Amino acid sequence: MSLKAVIAKTKAYYCLECGICTGTCPVSRYSPTYSPRVMVENALLFEEGETLCAEELWTCLTCGTCNLRCPSTVDYTAFMAALREKARAIGEQGTCTHADTMAALGALQMREDFRKPREWLGKGVRIKPKGSTYYFSGCLPYLNVVFREIGYEGGESGNAAVRLLNAAGIVPAVSEKEVCCGHDPYWTGDRDSVRYFARRNLAAIRKTGAKRVVFSCPEGYHMFKHIYPELGIKVPFECVHILTVLADNLNKLKLKPFPGEVTYHDPCRLVKFDDVFEAPRELLAAVPDLALVEMGRIGKDAMCCGSSNWVSCTRVNKQIQVERLNEAVDTGAATLITSCPKCNIHLRCAARDEDNKGKMEIKDILTLLAESLGGKKRAT
Question: Span 50-58, mean pLDDT?
Answer without folding.
Answer: 92
